[in-house]
Amino acid sequence: MFNDSDNQTLGRPILMKEIGGVMQSSAKDKSPSPDGWDVELFIHFKELIGHAILAVTKESRTKGFIPGAINATFIALIPKKEHDSYNICGIQAHFPL
After folding, report:
1. Segment 10-44, tens digit of pLDDT
2. pTM here?
3. Degrees, nearest 5: CA angle 45-40-32
4. SS3 for 96?
5. What is the largest CA-CA distance in the chain?
6. Cα–Cα dist 67/61, whole Å
7. CA distance 50 to 17
8. SS3 sequence, 23-85?
9. CB-count exposure of residue 79 (10 Å: 0-12, 13-18, 19+)
10. Chain center to CA of 59
């Protein structure tokens, strides 16, 4: 469970510096969503779009939901066959949905 210190850390405002840090730590040369835009595009245009990303992040935290346009890009993985719930290994054992 979370203690008071954890709650304070999780409840503090998100900073632009953190958004940039997440972008920099993301896997490069990968497509994060069906639109085909890789993280390098977001890093390159961070000054232009960073504040919009920060605003959407803050809004999702305060309102408690993720906007539909972003939610539509999530991918769920469904097991191809039954597995022991503690022994599901590898993306090859799943279908994307």
Report:
1. 888 899 999 999 888 887 877 656 666 788 888 89
2. 0.59
3. 110
4. strand
5. 46
6. 11
7. 10
8. HHHCCCCCCCCCCCCCHHHHHHCHHHHHHHHHHHHHHHHHHCCCCHHHHCCCCCEEECCCCCC
9. exposed
10. 15
